[in-house]
Amino acid sequence: ITDDTAMLVDAAIARLIARNQQMGDFIWWYFGSKWTMVRIAETHKMSERSAREIIRQGVAWLDGALGNFCEAA
């Protein structure tokens, strides 16, 4: 991806973290740090299913946030 796109993704993740700390952290750990969903769940004392749902919600939020930028381009 281009540097401009990477900056948009980074800014969107920062907005998500400001809006929902846990969701943003989970997205970062899963995609940025390559943690497994099991590791994220165990670290936060929750089921893997719960962690997976939070990550999916975060991906959907980012998709919506980045969709606006992609349409503008």
Automatic annotation (TrEMBL):
One of its GO terms (molecular function) is DNA binding. One of its GO terms (biological process) is negative regulation of termination of DNA-templated transcription. Pfam families: Phage_antitermQ. Keywords: DNA-binding, Transcription, Transcription regulation. The keyword Transcription regulation applies. InterPro entries: Phage_933W_GpQ. It comes from the Bacteria. Belongs to the phage antitermination Q type 1 family. This is Uncharacterized protein. It comes from Pseudomonas amygdali pv. mori str. 301020.
